[in-house]
Specification:
With about 350 residues, the protein is mostly helical. Helix content is about 80%, strand content about 0%. The chain is globular. About 0% of the residues have low confidence.
């Protein structure tokens, strides 16, 4: 090969590399714009949730009251700052936490139908809440208001630890083993909840059923603070694992060839998922489909690059939950429906629409 030919080939390769780099930079800019747009949509959904409700307050009064609380009467101030604002913030935080957990779980289990409740987290939390509500069993010394959420968190987190221990003892444990053991835990905890319901009084049974529907009515500033703290502590570890999670989408063998410890990554991800899901369920009860639909919306818009997929999932989950909160206050005038019912009603057609519109990617 002559020197001129070699130089020409190097020049062409340089042009190709610049073209590829240019396309990559354009793709990154596009994804950044999409995530920013989703964040703005989430902010708009939060504002819509904040200004809707059964009271006679107008949106202008609510916004003016946030900027100048003295412009509101004491009852109106209580409605805005003790009811609507904690409810709206809790909807955003729970939606973000469940969707982030769902995105990570779908990746590590390589299952598009995975959600935070696939491994029995919801069922275990319901059993913990049932023990507190019906039998009064909880950690001694806790305030009465915290017995149910603490019980739900302890049992949800314990279920994931038990699952991981069982999977570690199983030979050749992998994704299939974890999923099958998780399904077994779902049936086991559902049976235990049914047994507790059978033993409960009518009043305790009503409380348990209402808790299991999922509701934002238990949102307080203390709960909001704890939920925000958990999300702020867990999310950075998810961002740090984004590159390894992206490589795992190429297959476990390919990820191992990149130096990823798949077993350790799966264990750490399950811990993050359990903390996010358990805290959410402890404060608002069972919320379905947010952890399933939110990541799919983000994936259809962003793709599989977890550097952008994870923040997009956070935004989409917040949007879905905020809009569900709005619907829970407006579907039946004068009645605040449990938001878990709304997410189930709305989540099914939305998920089917996503599947049938983009079957290959969904």
């Amino acid at each position: 090969m002559s020197e001129a030919t070699r130089r020409h080939g190097a020049h062409v390769a340089g042009l190709d590399a610049e073209a590829v780099l240019g396309r990559y930079r354009a793709l990154v800019r596009r994804r950044v714009v999409i995530v920013a747009g989703m964040a703005l949509v989430g902010l708009a959904a939060f504002a819509c949730d904040l200004v809707t409700g059964p009271s006679a307050l107008t949106p202008v009064q609510v916004i003016a009251g946030l900027l100048s609380p003295e412009s509101l009467t004491p009852p109106q101030r209580a409605i805005v700052f003790q009811v609507r604002l904690p409810y709206a913030l809790m909807a955003v935080l729970v939606g973000a936490a469940l969707s982030l957990a769902g995105a990570e779980m779908q990746t590590i289990l390589d299952n598009p139908l995975a959600s935070p409740f696939t491994l029995g987290v919801s069922s275990a939390a319901s059993f913990g809440a049932a023990l507190a509500i019906v039998l009064g069993i909880g950690i001694p010394g806790l305030p009465t208001d915290w017995i149910v959420p603490i019980n739900a968190f302890v049992f949800a987190f314990g279920s994931v630890m038990l699952l991981q221990a069982m999977a570690a003892r199983a030979r050749g444990s992998g994704v299939e083993t974890v999923v099958l053991l998780g399904i077994a835990l779902v049936f086991a905890f559902n049976a235990l909840v049914a047994f507790v319901q059978f033993l409960s009084s009518q009043e305790a049974l009503q409380q348990l059923v209402f808790w299991s529907m999922g509701s934002l009515s238990r949102a307080t500033w203390g709960n909001v603070g704890v939920m925000a703290l958990v999300l702020l502590l867990v999310a950075p570890f998810s961002w740090l694992a984004a590159g390894r999670l992206t490589s795992l989408r190429l297959g476990e063998d390919r990820a191992r060839s990149f130096g990823v410890d798949v077993g350790r990554l799966r264990f750490a991800t399950l811990l993050r998922v359990s903390v996010l899901a358990a805290t959410s369920v402890a404060f608002v009860g069972t919320i379905g489909f947010v952890g399933l639909v939110g990541p799919h919306i983000a994936r259809l818009l962003i793709g599989e690059d977890h550097r952008f997929l994870l923040p997009a999932s956070v935004c989409s989950g917040a949007v879905v939950m905020s809009l569900a909160s709005v619907a829970s206050k407006t579907l039946v005038p004068g009645v605040l429906m449990p938001v878990g019912i709304v997410t189930a009603i709305v989540g099914v057609p939305v998920f089917l629409l996503l599947v049938f519109r983009k079957p290959g990617r969904a």
